[in-house]
Amino acid sequence: MAEIKIAGIMRAGMFSPNRIGSDAAIFNIVAEQLRKRGCEVRLYSEEEFIGGAVNERILLNMCREQRSIELLQQREDSGDLVINSGYGIENCGRERLWRILRGSNIPYPDSIAVNTDEGIRDLLVKNRMTRCWIKRADYQSLHKEDVSYVRHADEAQEVLQEYFLRGIPRALITRHIEGALIKFYGVAGTNFFYSFLPFESREALRGDSSRELAPAENERLAAMCRAASDVLDVKIYGGDAILDADGTITIIDFDDWPSFGPCRNEAAPFIAKCVMAEIKKHFGGKKESEA
Questions:
Q1: Tally of structural domains, the chain
Q2: Which of 25, 28, 173, 256 is most enclosed, with most CB atoms within 10 A?
Q3: What is the rounded end-to-end Cα distance, in angstroms, of the chain?
Q4: Cα 220 off chain centre by
Q5: Predicted confidence pLDDT, tens digits, the chain (291 residues)
Q6: Which residues form the domain of 201?
């Protein structure tokens, strides 16, 4: 029987908008990679985890439900190994993300956190924020309406009112940055980092459809993401950044455990390697049942 027993906790469907199959795919491939390394991996739903079904001391998870996050933090505090950390998952909520990255001098757009029942027209005018993005402040997006592009203060006020009526109490208003979108994926403690410019982003850079990130640009982004991974306490991550016309790179989103869609098979062995290294570091060579 395998000595290392791992609980793999899948992401609830409501937190995988249009990505249920993709999220399940990367998780299952990583589970197989860990089994090949001699681990016993049992998969659970978030509902089963909340219901008390998980007894393993190593929790590999894609959780997003608030009750799940609280339970992960409790298990972490009691000495269990949790990847990604429940505290790290919470840090990826947009308001926390903004405060932590800006406080750590990691580039993130100018932003304002507000209650959705506030009047914001004068505030946006004062800060010269005309074109901007309004995002729910707690989670990553559950629906496409959770991220809204607006062109002026009146439109922003209308969107904020809609958020309030939908029961979203806080929003983050982020200055729009003109440039090309970069998608990225990484695994802490390994040399795995994958980034690319979607076709429409390449077209945005002076109409050059063949444009890719230069090696120096990719390394700058990778270093930025490694720093973000560290301060946020997120081992398995992905997200979005903007490359503007003068070459400046700014992170605009950082997600705990994305689907790794374009690089799933390449990433999975590195995720398993990260997990095994964290097990060794956490339990110091002991069986997890003895720690």
A1: 3
A2: 256
A3: 19
A4: 19
A5: 458 999 999 987 666 555 567 888 999 999 999 999 999 999 999 999 999 999 999 999 999 899 999 999 999 999 999 999 999 999 999 999 999 999 999 999 999 999 999 999 999 999 999 999 999 998 765 666 789 999 999 999 999 999 999 999 999 999 999 999 999 999 999 999 999 998 666 555 555 555 688 899 999 999 999 999 999 999 999 999 999 988 899 999 999 999 999 999 999 999 999 999 999 999 985 555 544
A6: 180-256
> Residue 196 maps to which CATH number?
3.30.470.20
Neighbours of 68 (CB within 10 A): 22
**pTM exceeds 0.85 for this model:** yes
**Residue 273 placed within a domain:** yes
Coarse DSSP helix, strand, coil percentages of the chain, rounded to the nearest 5 percent: 40, 25, 35
- Six token digits for residue 42: 């049992």
β-bridge partners, 43: 8
Contact present, 235 and 189 (Cβ < 8 Å): yes
Q: What's the CA angle centered on 15, arms 12 and 20, to 5 degrees?
A: 70
Is-contact 266 194, C-beta < 8 A?
A: yes
Tokens of 79: 């000495």
Same domain, 168 and 186: no
Is 187 contained in some domain?
A: yes
Q: Residue 61: beta bridge partners?
A: 9
In a domain, 277, yes or no: yes
Return the closest-CA partner of residue 139 out of 223, 17, 267, 6: 17
Contacts of 38 (CB under 8 A, 6+ apart): 2, 3, 4
Domain membership of residue 92 (yes or no) is no
Query: Cis bond leading into 84, ω under 30°?
Result: yes
* Extended beta strands in the chain, E state: 4-9, 39-44, 58-61, 81-83, 111-115, 132-136, 147-150, 170-175, 180-187, 193-196, 236-243, 249-256
Q: Please say whether the dihedral angle defined by the alpha carbons of residues 224, 225, 226 and 227, taken in this order, is positive or negative.
A: positive
Residue 75: how many other CB atoms lie within 10 Å: 21
